[in-house]
Structure formats: C-alpha cells, structure tokens
Design goal:
single chain; 273 residues; alpha+beta; 4-stranded mixed beta sheet; 6 helices; 19% helix; binds copper (II) ion
Length: 273
C-alpha cells in the first residue's frame, strides 16, 4: 500500500551506501541487513490517542511478526577476506583477528559476532488513528532485560564514523526520533552456541529529542528522561541465535574422527592380543 512508501525511501537512503561486499579486502561499511538475510522490523505506533495530531495521552502499540531468528556471525563469515580501515570506529570490536581472512595486524579486531537485521520502526498515520509523536516530546526505548551481559548494542552512523555503545545494561535507554533504526547487536567471538534474548520497552518520554548522533539520542539528558505516564508503554522481544563457527565444527569433526580411529585401534588391538 501507498502508506508504506516512506519506509522504502528510508531503506534506500540507509543502505544504498553499502558497497558491494564479497571480493574486496578493505570494506568501508559494516555488512548490514541486506547481507544478513533481510530486515526484521517491529512497527511501533501510538493508538487510542486523545488527539492524533498532537496527543497528550494514548497507548503504544507494536506490530511484530518475525519470520526468522537473526544469527550473529563474524565479519569473516558475513564477508570472507574483508577488513576495516584502521581508523574505523567499529574496527576494534568487529574486525577479524590478525591473519583471519588475511587481515593485517593494523586492521585487526576482536572478531565479535554481530547482526543488525532488527530495526525499530515507527509509523504515524493520523487518518487511520495512528497518532503523531507529541510535540516537544519523543519516543523512548529502554532495555528491560537481556539474557547475557555480553550481548551489547551499538548505534552505527557510517558517515560520522560513529560506533557508540547504547543500552549499557538493563534499565539503560535512548530517545528515538522514530526513523527506522537498525542498531547492531554483538557478542564475543567465542560465545557458546545458543539463543540470546533482549526485551525493550517503548515509551513516550517527557522531553524533546536532541539530534547529533543519528536517529537516537543518548546524551546525559536522554539517558535520564522520564516517562510520560499518560501514555501506556509497549514491549518488544528480540531473539538471537549463535551457531557453532565452521572452524569449531571442523575441530569437533576432527576430534570425532580421531576418537573413532583410536576406538578402532583399541578394538583391533583387543581383537589381536
Ligand atoms: Cu529496516
């Protein structure tokens, strides 16, 4: 439908800058949703508002029906043989360890696994009962809980070389201007395979959004912003998967073969004393 057009425009604006990944050694952007299997986006709106143009009360609503669980993978898995510029803010976290995929020491990083398929999205359509963000106020996102303290989140603005950690622990928050925001989630490269989760509260904050760091504001004022109690919050639950790395699988396969070989030898030696 026609009303979805704005999000498509935003998408082009956000991701047209990504270079073709695959055979380049130095890459100038972090692999994004298009490289990871596509965007997965909870859509937030304000309903039951007293005034759809400039509400002073209402209820936050989330439409979210994820069709897949994002997998966190390393740079070497998303884009084999690639590395980031030494000065790239995300290089220390996401760069492959030296030597992996030919990564030079100066371009190396911790090899964290990452994903940014999830993107917070807000839609207002006053004509259909989906209210605007109240004037002089903003949306807020707070991390309510997470399954592992190692699951970290970052605001990425390529053009400004920004790679800022946000949601530093449960209870931490940002203000959000409502633009589609694909924050990155990371885990250490040696994280055990399994499911990881994070739950967020979406609320209306009692203060204005300050631009300067992209679509989210994590100034000290933003971090301390209070809820407007006249709006009922909504919650968003994210699931993530970490699967065994191919190298780990190879090591296990090797071990298994060794054990089998040893077992056979033992059988043989038992059979022929
Ligand atoms: Cu998106």
């Amino acid at each position: 439908m026609n009303l979805l057009k704005p999000s498509l425009t935003i998408r082009t604006g956000l991701f047209a800058a990504f270079p073709l990944l695959g055979n380049a050694a130095l890459i100038t952007a972090i692999p994004g949703p298009d490289d990871q299997g596509g965007m997965i986006m909870p859509m937030v709106s304000i309903i039951d508002a007293d005034d759809v143009m400039n509400p002073s009360s209402g209820r936050l609503s989330v439409a979210f029906n994820p069709q897949a669980v994002p997998v966190l993978r390393s740079l070497e898995e998303w884009s084999p043989g690639s590395w980031f510029a030494e000065a790239a803010a995300w290089r220390p976290d996401l760069g492959s360890p030296a030597g992996v995929g030919g990564t030079p020491a100066a371009n190396a990083g911790n090899g964290d696994v990452f994903n940014n398929q999830y993107g917070f999205m807000f839609m207002s359509m006053p004509g259909m009962g989906m209210a605007n963000i109240p004037v002089g106020q903003s949306l807020g996102l707070q991390l309510v809980s997470l399954s592992s303290p190692d699951l970290r989140s970052f605001n990425y603005v390529n053009s400004a070389n920004l790679w800022d950690e946000v949601f530093a622990g449960a209870g931490s928050q940002v203000l959000w201007n409502g633009s589609m925001w694909h924050n990155y989630f990371t885990l250490p490269g040696d994280t055990p395979a399994g499911t990881y989760t994070a739950t967020f509260e979406v609320f209306i904050a009692d203060q204005e959004f300050s631009p300067g760091t992209g679509f989210v504001d994590y100034s000290s004022a933003a971090l301390a912003a209070a809820r407007d109690g006249n709006f009922e919050s909504a919650f968003i639950h994210y699931d993530f998967t970490v699967i065994p790395e191919p190298s780990t699988v190879a090591v296990f396969a090797g071990l298994l073969m060794l054990l089998l070989a040893l077992g056979r030898k033992r059988v043989e030696s038992n059979g022929h004393p």
